Amino acid sequence: MGPRVLRRKLLELSTRSRVFMFGNHKGGVGKTTVVLQLAAALARMGFRILVIDMDPQANLTRRMGLEYDENDPFSTVSEAVKENREGVGAGVVLGVNWNDERTGQPTSEAELIDIIPARFDLINREQEAGAVGAVRRLKKALAGWTSHYDFILIDTRPDLGHLVQLAMAAADEVVLVFEPDYDTVAGAIRMQEFVEEHGEDLGNPELRVGMAFVNRYDRSSEQDYQLAGLPESLKSKLVELDAGGAVVGLGDGGEDYRIPKYIPRIARIKEADGAGVSVSEYRNRKGRETTAIFDRLAEKFVERVIREADAA
Hints:
By secondary structure, the protein is α/β, with parallel strands linked by helices.
């Protein structure tokens, strides 16, 4: 199904915004990159996206074009969580600051993406973990005003502490991101087990891991060994970009591009991280190849959401 058909199908099934938390108990897996580039790809499909930065490092915030300035401050998710009031999150939403370098105007992606930003003081919210009902504060902050978004994507820090639990309590589904190596696979499994064991404790008994994205895949024998050894409970969640090696045209008059099975290790992705932009800003062939990868990821993501909503 094409992007327009997918969007129409999703809207037919439900008008409710869906909340996805992205996580791994192990850091350095490129989780923030995946959240950002997936949001951009979903926007290219015409979806309206809210991203939430729940990591005190605030890397997602910076990559969305927002640098905190003490002389021109903005409110963040930390203030919203601290206030502990229904709907307060609406007051800390900002637009993504991506401008087209050719025109100086906001990119078409930026016009469809909003962010609840973070800064380093978000770590102070950890001190409130013992307060009654504290784990529900992010969910309360989102109550009553997010229905105009198609998807809400939450980026989290690589642990299972209070800030991650706030995100879990607010989410419909957890998406695991991992590289196919021993430590990051183990981190993904630990997070999956935590979700299965503690959803009810977080006031979210329906919470589950619905998808898993493989990132920085380089087709090495070690990576293939790790993927082959995944427990079935995790293997069944894997989102494959294309198992059959589909070919897409890039419109440059050159050879078509064969979509890989998983998100590969590509220098262009790291360059986009450093520059704080969508990969679509790179308009040479390698940039278009990278954009095609995330466009396919977005399509597979939406297809999975539609299939599960249809079954429900």
